[in-house]
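name: query_chain
kind: protein
chains: 1
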Amino acid sequence: MQDGAVPESNSIPAPEAELLAGTERRIHRAMVALGAAGTIVCLLWRGWGWGAGFAIGAVLSALNFRWMATAAHALGDAASSQIAPARPRRGVVARFVLRYALIGLAGYAIFKSSFISLGAFFLGLFLFIAAILAEICYQVYCAFRSE
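structure:
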């Protein structure tokens, strides 16, 4: 082995790299499916106030996830480049602050109105956790299937 060469054992095997490459896409799809199913269940179970609260929370959860993924990609690109920027780009910082302001504003508006369920809103906000858990289960399944 030459000096400075990376040994082959440090690289990710091709099947695992392919599985990891689709992670973000699968989480996004799971969020859409779980958001639609959760909205329908809340509508049928508790009425339109719960369905609307869950749907608003689910949309904000998906938006939050998308913005976090964009910020993570921007940070990864900055870390992998030879010349690191002195400050983060304004757009990344603005989206970071905006997403929490948007969630807070929506929660406050729902709290002040008695028509939409605040509990269902918070339930919808945790949609990304359910999607990530679904992805974890999928990857565990793939690991056991390949053995």
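note: The chain has a mean pLDDT of 82.
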